[in-house]
Amino acid sequence: MGFSGKNFYYKDYRNIVDYIYDFGDCSFDEVPFCDADNVVFSLLSYIEFERFLKANDEFVPITVHEACVDYLSWMRIDFFTNDLSDWLRKTIFLAMALLKNKRFSQCKITDFPVFFSHRKAEQFAGLRIEIADGTYVIAFRGTDTTLTGWEEDFNLACYPYTPGQKRALEFTRNCIRKYPRKKCRIMGHSKGGNFAVFASATLTEKEQKHIINVYSDDAPGCSAELYASEGHQRIKDRIVHIVPMDDIIGSLLHHEEISYVVAAEGFSDFMNQHDAFTWKMEGINFRRVPDTTPMSKYMALSFNDLITKDLTQEDTISLVKIFTRTIKNTGYTSAITIFDSIPSFVLSFYATANKGDKNDKMVLKKAFKKIVSAFRAHFKEYVEFNNRQQGQLQAARKEDEISKAVLLEKNA
Question: Phi and psi for 351 in degrees, rounded to 5?
């Protein structure tokens, strides 16, 4: 999830909403499906259509135009104020941009499964959308603002699969069987991208032949077992893994090579750059940068060592259970309230943890020591990353100065 605020409304760069306006009159014949279209559909899946439309077997196919009209006309002030995070408010502008254009408005949403369970720690939603080039997309929703959604995120590091991942596989398989003559692209942002990779890698070889591409938009990786599986090896060359320059989420766990790194809004970092509305665009393409930042590499290395090496699976499961239970006991009910006041939440979490039983406190204390140890172990690498990047920047500036001097001499 991203939580960037007012910078979005005063931006000085092109983003995914501008892309929709700039190329909305271009058909998929004129401008073939591109990476930006994947982000459009991935972000569309975050809109909670289930609040005003029937889902699952009762869903009635609807065009993107009709769905956006329903969303905008349904929007309530109390929902906007209390239940919509800063970054999800941007879906209003997404819907406005999608209303009337040749490229997107007549795409048809044919299937819309939604499943949510506090007991199972399950938060899942997906869209199947037919586009005018004769193919269809499957877009999976990423993490919502519920604590249940976040609990499932944490469980990605604990178990071979989560309930949402199983739903993603089931939905993808049903779509392929229901539309056997059509090719598809499977995508999602954040946890939605993880679902896309999991489902695609778990399909049979015959089923995988229906897939054109899989898009993992700053999505966390998968388990070691899935990463090494034959299914993942068959599909990995069709996975497009996009991350922002200050990435953390997209570098967690076991994942394929990063396809490319995008420039993102300069005043945001880490969690805020996870918000795809902050990703910068040039024409139909995202603006690319050579690599992620040194701090991004440092954070990813440290967290991955902690999750995959320093903690056993039993340790991780125990830690996640205690961590999520402690969060719930603080009285905070959603990610919105947590991110609205992080210092207050940290104090509340600390106070609640101190009131916990002896075993819980011991597990949290042990985990904290391992976190510190993991970050210490990679600090030297961070310094090396940083020095190397500074050297590259200085060399690039020097080269630019030489080029300008040569140009001035030619024009003299």
Answer: -65, -40
